[in-house]
């Protein structure tokens, strides 16, 4: 499977209730994966990444995230770039989060080893104002 196909499958697999996403992350990412969001400390290791996703549920509930990919390109070094809009919806279909994102993915042995998203965090921060420990959300560490 090409790196492009790995990234497409990864993003498609995220389109399920958040409570089911940890299993997808563990199956799709390396144990030492790094996930970063522009301007915030990265999560290092699959358990930090899973923890951050679980904390997202504390803020937004068991939502479903859909990634609408506009452009996807794989460089000669195998790095995959995406331009997309991530939309979070309640399971009833109510839109609760919309973020325009440029994502960069590195793939190793058919799994995501590095995932970095670059976006304007203002929309996300508005929803996070209800979280008692915002720093924990961004570090993935409770």
From TrEMBL:
<protein>
    <submittedName>
        <fullName>Limonene-1,2-epoxide hydrolase</fullName>
        <ecNumber>3.3.2.8</ecNumber>
    </submittedName>
</protein>
<dbReference type="InterPro" id="IPR032710">
    <property type="entry name" value="NTF2-like_dom_sf"/>
</dbReference>
<keyword id="KW-0378">Hydrolase</keyword>
<dbReference type="GO" id="GO:0018744">
    <property type="term" value="F:limonene-1,2-epoxide hydrolase activity"/>
</dbReference>
<dbReference type="Pfam" id="PF07858">
    <property type="entry name" value="LEH"/>
</dbReference>
<feature type="domain" description="Limonene-1,2-epoxide hydrolase">
    <location>
        <begin position="3"/>
        <end position="127"/>
    </location>
</feature>
<dbReference type="InterPro" id="IPR013100">
    <property type="entry name" value="LEH"/>
</dbReference>
